[in-house]
Structures
1.
Amino acid sequence: MGMMRWIRRNLVVIAGLLTLAYMILPNIVVMVFSFNKPNGRFNYSWQRFSLDAWKDPCGVADMCESLSLSLQLAAWATVGALVLGTMIAFALVRYRFRARGAINSLIFLPMAMPEVVMAASLLTLFLNMGIELGFWTVLIAHIMFCLSFVVTAVKARVMSMDPRLEEAARDLYAGPVQTFLRVTLPIAAPGIAAGALLAFALSFDDFIITNFNAGSTVTFPMFVWGSAQRGTPVQINVIGTAMFVLAVLMVVAGQIITNRRKKTATA
Amino acid sequence: MSTSTLTKEEAPQPVKAPVPRKPSTRKRLVPYWLLLPGIIWLVVFFALPLVYQASTSIQTGSLEQGFQVTWHFQTYWDAFTEYWPQFVRSLLYAGTATLLCLLLGYPLAYLIAFKAGRWRNLLLVLVIAPFFTSFLIRTLAWKTILADDSVVVDVLNALHVLDVTSWLGWTEGERVLATPMAVVCGLTYNFLPFMILPLYTSLERIDGRLHEAAQDLYASPATTFRKVTFPLSMPGVVSGTLLTFIPASGDYVNAELLGSTDTKMVGNVIQSQFLRVLDYPTAAALSFILMAIVLVMVTVYIRKAGTEDLV
């Protein structure tokens, strides 16, 4: 009886934690199977413990090349989307002008369209223009679909900014450049950082749009996709685990830094 | 009043002469200069491709002889009559996955927003962190989890769950992999964060005092949820369901990795027509039909659910 009551009182907590378990389960499987010694080409069933893949993460042909290509792509796509997106976000929040509505929907639409539609239409453009598929077409595509997400993230932050802070800076004889660099940018930074993180993650992980527009270029998700048909090397799990651990460590480090800053700010 | 609206329509510049022209012409152009590069990018690489695709969809020809625009709208009809099962399946799978995401995601978003206390940041990290392991790797992990001799399938078999789901046509016999259930499970899993984050954002904005007020007025927890919390979280519900349903309807990764030939979605067809069969007109027509269906459904849904602060 008491047990049932306890369950009922904590129903939300239990259901929430079960969902979390559902979300984390594949990551645990990926981690565990990075220590597997598979029998045959596929790494889907547990055979026996081994550290081989961790000792030689780049031991698979072409995998680390595709990984480094994906990292470069993500880095450039982030820079491109960040520059273009931040400019748009500031224009939209700070200025009143004609065509705001149209521009807002132009930015919303890429997020509201199935990826496969965008991927296919971009491919028809490149085919019609006779542009060779490869690194550049993928980069163009990635900047395009990351742009909207950056605009949304930066916009949310800039909207909650008090414009009087910039007025105050101007009253104190700061020039426009100085005001932007010393007041506007630091306040907008969390939004810009969120946009950057999102763009990097989206670009690094994108498969559908990349698959259509990459030609013979192979990014990391495309390598994983191909290996799902040919046979999955354990090294894929090593990379997946390393990325997961790295991400968690980065977030924890960021948390510690902001906590410290808060403490020094209040002290 | 009427004159001012007239002048606004006719000339962008104020007509009243005595007002000295501010040195702000340059300043007025600032937003346009800020917008220009990004908007050009979106027009050239997002809007223009859609025009090209529209033109491709009404072309006829072959890869060897080249394609010509012949206003052959028949392609649309042919594509739809041939592939309507895949369309229906896509909408069904995406709809089910969206509903499951809402049911599974709401408690977790609620937990993080109201009950997590100092664990809040950790839970948020755990929701976002899986993003950093490539989603393809994680989807492949489901092959292990749902394999025929896996613990999960054994338990479902022991509980006779699979008997029921097989009777419903969701699974086949004693297996889960390569059935609709596996595909929906993968879709639900892959798009859960897109449901949880907007839900969390809108739940977190709710003033906790409203809950206290509801309790003071003798509302039970269930009534408080039904009358206060849930309505106030509607913006999150709407954007979460959209962010889940739209990408899920066009997805072909889950159907390919976890499903079988009987679970092909429209994304699979578009993909193979474009990249393998190289029948560009049919592929373009299919992706336009998908876009039209999704846009109509989303518009109707937004009208019904009615929230303005979506974007």
2.
Amino acid sequence: MLANWRLARKQPMLRARARLVQEIRQFFIAGGYLEVETPLRIPAPAPESHIEPIPSLSWFLQTSPELCMKRLLAAGYERLFQICHCWRDGERGGQHLPEFTMLEWYRAQSDYRDLMIDCEGLLVTLARAMTGATAVAFRGRIFELAPPWERLSVRAAFQRYCGMSADEALRLDLFDELMVEKIEPQLGWGTPTFIYDYPACRGALSRLKADEPDTAERFELYLGGVELANAFSELTDPLEQRRRFVAERDYRAAQGRLPLPLPEPFLAELASMPPAAGIALGIDRLVMLFCDAESIDDVVAFPPEEL
Amino acid sequence: MYTVADLKKGLKVTLDGDPYIVIAFEFSKPGKGQALYRTKLRNMINGTTLDRTYRSGESFEPAQLEERQMQYLYKEDTHYTFMDNQTYEQVQMSEDSVGDAKNFMIDNLPVDILLYGEKAIGVTLPNFVNLRVVQTDPWVKGDTSGSDSKPAVLETGYTLRVPPFIEEGELIVVDTRSGEYSTRVKG
């Protein structure tokens, strides 16, 4: 019998991964969060322009547990977290797997600034548990994780790294290219970086700023050029949310992509949702960080090509 | 037709009328943004490289490449002429495209020619070629310098190191992949 040496050699990484997940669990339980499990196979994911769900019979594998977790918020659950698998078709690269592990947490009566503080606390706690210090070595650098972390608005990032305004980049349809080629590689090298306040059209399910309706209360967290998390002050207006879903659905239809139904039960219950903030953090990338792994393939037992 | 989902290292595509090979490939996706496929491509005719970023939905023409068995006929100015063994059709290739292969090319040598449409853009030699030594110093018996090799010039003008016992006029076998002496041809 031929042993699978590549799999055998992953044991230290997979052990570190298991420990990290246990530490995450303890962090949230200690913070008064309720761990929940919502269905992985759902009839209607949130329609999003650039996220492709994988069909499962006439339903879909979830692209995120977001909608079900928000229905729990609407039903009065105040602090929730979940560690689960998500699927996104066609996403494969050094930092992407079509099946990956997501940590999501939600807080009622909060906004995205509270989640920034949660992120700082979580990473420092994990670093202490994993390395005994508040620093972590990754990609040839030592990263100090003790706050404060850099906070950089999207508009400031475009001016600083592209010499172009974010609005101009959107007008020229260059927003994503500039983000990937010019901005992301610069983020999170001194301290971790929160890049925040996205143009409204890049807000997805996030609330717009009360005094700046062209800006969405959204942030992403980067460390060493790697995107770790995406957070929103959640949109709680069912009409606005329906309008956005319809726009995304129509955009997808115009591109000839998989048709998606609207998540009606979610839209119906959204009106009862309190002001809240929610965040999704990629566990596989977090393991990459704490194990100083080169590729996401190193931190999972089986990349899809090896099945 | 290829789509971006087919992109990977080694894929050969046509861009702006030239054949390119993908030499580096990276999938990126900014949070909630569109998938971007960042590639480094090398022009298979002139060797220049370029960086290109593609979005999902884009498609590519495969490069129409074909490899055919031919033999080397002769060199004229800066062009090398080859002939297809089956059709007797002749193709020419520039000195630049022939590259280091010219060091080992002797008349009637069987080679594989890479064609892009009608255009010859690459040559693959046999792994071993017999070449005649046209100049090398004589072997002095009892030489105590301890040197175990000496320079020799081949009929193609290529210089390499050979064992001391190789003499002018001898036929030797050269490994075209390393450019090194392999053995002498007996008889």
